[in-house]
Design a protein that fits this description.
This protein is mostly beta strands. It is built from two helices and 13 strands. Residues 20-26 have low confidence and may be disordered.
C-alpha cells in the first residue's frame, strides 16, 4: 500500500505544479481567463454545446452535446491494493461523434491479479480480458442559458472468460447497462454531474440475471481559462443485499491542446479486503473539423 501512496503523492505534486503554473498568467485578467476555454467550446457553431467537466474514472462516452467529428483515444492504467493480492487494471478506448450530439465508444478493459507472498494463486481471482465494451450516448437536452445538459446512454459488455478457463466457454456473459446523465455548470468554474442507471448481468453458464444499480455524483472546479480541473467522483453501487461506495478525488491537466493527463486515487469506504488504489488516464484528441 505504501507504494500506492507514494505514487499518488508524487503525481499529484507534479500535476498541481503544472495546474498552478497555468492558472497564474499575469497577462490575463480573471474575467478573460474565465471566458477563454468556455468560448472556444461553446461558440461559433450552429448547435449549442455547454462546457462540462467530465469525470475521469467512470468517464462519459463522448463530451455532452458532442459535435460531429469529435474523437478521442484513452489509455488507462491503475492498481488497487487488496489484503491477499494486488489488482492491476488497464484499458484502451476509442470514442467519436458520427453526428451532432451522438457519441459512440469501443473499449477493451483488462484485469491482472498478482498474489502477495505465500498466497496460493488459485485462491485469488484469475486475470482476464474483462470484456468487449460497446457504448452509445445521446445528448437530448442542451441549454446554454441554463448551462445544463441531459443525456441518455447504453453500454453493452460482452464478458469474457478468465485466462484459467479461456475458451470454455469463450463468452462468460453479457452486461446490459442503460444510463442517464444530468450535468450543470454553476457560473464559469463549478461543475456538477450525476450518472445513474441499472447494471444487469446475464450469466451464460448459470442462465440467470443479476441486477445492481449505480449512482455516481461528481463535483469539479475547472481552473479559469484552462482545461485543468480538480474535483471528486463518488461512485456508488447497490442492490437489496449490499451498498458499496468509493471516493475518487481527481485532477486533470492539459500538457498540450490535444493531450490531457488525469490522476485518480481511490478510497473505498466499507470494503474490508480492498484498500487504497490509483488510476491514471491519458487522453489524446486527434484534430477534427
Amino acid at each position: 500500500m505504501n507504494r500506492i501512496v507514494h505514487c499518488v503523492v508524487f503525481v499529484y505534486l507534479i500535476v498541481t505544479n503544472l495546474a498552478v503554473a497555468q492558472f497564474y498568467d499575469d497577462s490575463l485578467t480573471k474575467a478573460e481567463r474565465d471566458s477563454i476555454y468556455i468560448s472556444e467550446t461553446e461558440s461559433n457553431y450552429e448547435k449549442p454545446k455547454v462546457l462540462h467537466a467530465e469525470p475521469l474514472y467512470i468517464d462519459l462516452i463522448r463530451d455532452l452535446g458532442a459535435r460531429k467529428g469529435e474523437r478521442e483515444w484513452n489509455i488507462g492504467m491503475g492498481m488497487i491494493d487488496h489484503d491477499r493480492y494486488d489488482a492491476y487494471e488497464a484499458l484502451i478506448e476509442y470514442e467519436w461523434a458520427p453526428i451532432d450530439r451522438l457519441g459512440l465508444e469501443i473499449e477493451i478493459p483488462v484485469q491482472f491479479y498478482i498474489p502477495l507472498e505465500d498466497v496460493p494463486i488459485d485462491s485469488i481471482p484469475a486475470s482476464r480480458i474483462e470484456s468487449l465494451k460497446l457504448a452509445a450516448q445521446w445528448s437530448f437536452f442542451v441549454s446554454e442559458k441554463l448551462k445544463t445538459t441531459f443525456a441518455l446512454g447504453y453500454i453493452h459488455e460482452f464478458e469474457l472468460t478468465n485466462f484459467r478457463s479461456f475458451g470454455s466457454p469463450f463468452l462468460y456473459g453479457n452486461l446490459f447497462n442503460p444510463f442517464f446523465i444530468g450535468a450543470k455548470r454553476w457560473g464559469n468554474n463549478f461543475h456538477t454531474l450525476i450518472y445513474t442507471g441499472p447494471r444487469i448481468f446475464y450469466s451464460a453458464r448459470q442462465e440467470r440475471l443479476e441486477t445492481e444499480y449505480e449512482m455516481h455524483t461528481n463535483f469539479h472546479y475547472m481552473i479559469s481559462g484552462t482545461r485543468n480541473f480538480i474535483g471528486i467522483e463518488i461512485n456508488k453501487y447497490f442492490n437489496p443485499d449490499f451498498f458499496d461506495i468509493t471516493l475518487r478525488p481527481q485532477m486533470r491537466v492539459a500538457f498540450a491542446d490535444n493531450l490531457l493527463i488525469g490522476i485518480v486515487p481511490s478510497i473505498p469506504i466499507e470494503r474490508k479486503s480492498e484498500r487504497l488504489g490509483m488510476f491514471l488516464r491519458v487522453i489524446w484528441e486527434p484534430k477534427h473539423h
